[in-house]
């Protein structure tokens, strides 16, 4: 692939400074997975790249594929924005959620064409969260964005092949020990108590019959599950949960 000119579509996952005038941009593409491009002179006053990309933009890309000693850092040739999702710039809770999801996708998305469902997931999520009107619920115990967080994390785990299996749980029991390390019916080294309402919140967080308390339990469960299986930084997610709670 090195030495080729690659044309694809990408969603901006992260932007980092490379020098005083250049950026490194991480993209999720549907056919090459996560790719990083060097954008030389990105912030110069007369740069052709000014205003053409930003966090969560979906863009058409043209880059020169090359390998470097530190890995693959490609040279961006052309970029054309397709969807800007500018509404996210004025809604900090939704932007925080989008940034968290983008960071997980960047870590988990596979290379090559296997990334296509990940691209579709992230593209649809960003469109939806940009289109949704802010929901200032009258119930201080409820938090619609926490319900969305549960749904998003469960879908990411499903895409990664790590979704928790609740098939062995007794729906009539007040609670059941659940092994977050993969053991069945509590036969594991790391177990937590899980109730039928929590399982409902994990599988159907937006259902009208799912109470806010069960959603809060689902958020805590997923925090433990993600930390165990993905070694995520719990303090980052904890701060996000606080931001998403009204």
Structure description:
The chain has 246 residues and is α+β, with helices and mostly antiparallel strands. It folds into two domains: 5-86, Nucleic acid-binding proteins (OB fold (Dihydrolipoamide Acetyltransferase, E2P), Beta Barrel); 135-244, no CATH class. Helix content is 35%, strand content 23%. The chain contains six helices and nine strands. Helix 1 (92-108) packs parallel to helix 3 and helix 1 (92-108) packs antiparallel against helix 6. The radius of gyration is 20 Å and the shape is elongated. 30% of the residues are buried. The mean pLDDT is 89.
Give the tags.
246 residues; alpha+beta; OB fold (Dihydrolipoamide Acetyltransferase, E2P); five-stranded mixed β-barrel; two-stranded antiparallel sheet; 6 helices; 23% strand; elongated
Shape: elongated
Which series of helices and strands comes N to C?
Answer: EEEEEEEHHHEEHHH
Instruction: Return the average pLDDT rounded to an integer.
Output: 89
Question: Biggest sheet, strands in spatial order?
Answer: 1-2-3-7-4
Number of domain modules:
2
Kindly report the oligomeric state of this protein.
single chain
Q: What is the count of DSSP helices, taking H or I runs of 4+ residues?
A: 6
């Amino acid at each position: 692939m090195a030495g080729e000119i690659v044309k694809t579509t990408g969603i901006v996952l992260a932007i980092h400074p490379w020098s005083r005038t250049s950026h490194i941009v991480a993209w999720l593409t549907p056919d090459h997975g996560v790719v990083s491009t060097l954008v030389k002179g990105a912030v110069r006053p007369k740069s052709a790249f000014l205003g053409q990309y930003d966090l969560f933009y979906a863009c058409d890309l043209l880059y020169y594929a090359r390998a470097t000693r530190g890995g693959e850092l490609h040279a961006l040739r052309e970029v054309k924005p397709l969807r800007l999702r500018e509404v996210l710039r004025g809604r900090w809770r939704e932007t925080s959620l989008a940034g968290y999801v983008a960071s997980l996708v960047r870590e988990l998305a596979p290379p090559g064409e296997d990334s296509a469902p990940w691209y579709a997931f992230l593209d649809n999520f960003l469109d939806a969260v940009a289109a949704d009107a802010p929901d200032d619920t009258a119930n201080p115990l409820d938090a619609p964005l926490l319900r969305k967080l549960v749904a998003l994390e469960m879908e990411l785990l499903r895409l990664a092949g790590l979704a928790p299996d609740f098939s062995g749980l007794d729906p009539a029991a007040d609670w059941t020990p659940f092994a977050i390390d993969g053991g069945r019916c509590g036969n594991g080294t790391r177990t937590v108590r899980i109730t039928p309402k929590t399982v409902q919140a994990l599988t159907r967080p937006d259902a009208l019959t799912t109470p806010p308390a069960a959603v809060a339990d689902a958020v805590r469960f997923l925090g433990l599950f993600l930390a165990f299986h993905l070694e995520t930084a719990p303090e980052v997610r904890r701060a996000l949960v606080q931001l998403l709670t009204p």
